[in-house]
Amino acid sequence: MKSYQTKFPYRIVPEHEKKYQFTTGELHKYRGHYYPLVIKPVTDAACDSVEIAQGHLVIHSSKPKNPAANAAILDEWYYHQAKALFAGMVAKAMLNARPYIRTAVPRLKIKRMLDQWGACNPRTGLLILNLELIKVPDACTAFVAQHEVLHLKYPSHNTAFFTAMKTLMPDWVEREKILKEYYPV
Ligand SMILES: [Zn+2]
Q1: Residues 6 or more apart from 34 whose CB is under 8 A from it?
Q2: pLDDT at 3 over 90
Q3: How far is the CA of 97 from the centre of ligand 1 (A)?
Q4: Is residue 54 in a domain?
Q5: Is residue 2 part of a domain?
Q6: Which residue range forms the structural domain that includes residue 100?
Q7: pLDDT band at residue 183, thresholds of 50, 70 and 90?
Q8: What distance in angstroms lies between residue 41's CA and the mean position of ligand 1's atoms?
Q9: 154: CA distance to ligand 1 center in Å?
Q10: N or C: at which end does the chain have fewer Cβ atoms within 10 angstroms?
Q11: Measured in angstroms, how far is the CA atom of residue 156 from the centroid of ligand 1?
């Protein structure tokens, strides 16, 4: 935390400290981009949905003036996008790590975490990715997926772990730097 505070003249507010108001024009993140928000009222809760249209993040909401309701609609959409995207990234990371890992593809769980991007338990075969990764560039999410997958072989951050990481993803340090500096959890 301290390193980027001294490096930049301003502090990027960690995502978990943000208080979104869900007002028109407010910037929301998705896959490394910032989209101004548009709230469009709908009459039926069954029509609650989210879309990216013409550079805007559009929430179709049956409770347009209710920030908590809008947050829930957006969160559900984030979760569905993350589920499809992250599963593909874990599969790709497993394929990439084939020289090292011969175990089955881990079960993937996506949940919001306050202090870590991911976790992987080689004993249970459960890999967890932070839902917040849906807001960061895909290259950074792929880095987290590769890192966690490698824990199936190397549970700790020892020299062997980092040697393998360098081989599998030569630019992982740059990807981690972007994540830490621009997208603090
Ligand atoms: Zn780790």
Answers
A1: 27, 28
A2: no
A3: 15
A4: yes
A5: no
A6: 7-182
A7: confident
A8: 43
A9: 9
A10: N
A11: 7
Q: How far is the CA of 182 from the centre of ligand 1 (A)?
A: 20
Query: Which residues lie below 8 Å from residue 50, measured CB to CB, with a gap of 6+?
Result: 57, 58, 59, 60, 73, 74, 77
What would the pLDDT profile of 104-137 be if each residue is shown by its tens digit? 889 999 999 988 999 999 999 999 999 999 999 9
Q: Give the confidence band of 13 by pLDDT, cuts at 50, 70, 90.
A: confident
- Quote the ligand 1 centre to 180 CA distance (angstroms): 14
**Structural domains in the chain (count):** 1
CA 13 and chain centroid, separation: 16
Q: How far is the centre of ligand 1, averaged over its atoms, from the C-alpha of 140 (Å)? A: 14
- Provide the 3-class DSSP secondary structure of residue 25: coil
Q: In the numeric block, which tokens belong to residue 119?
A: 């976790």
* CB of 120 closer than 8 Å to CB of 126: yes
Instruction: Please write the tens of the pLDDT for every residue from 166-178.
Output: 999 999 999 999 9
Residue 1 lies in a domain: no
Is residue 127 one of the residues assigned to a domain? yes
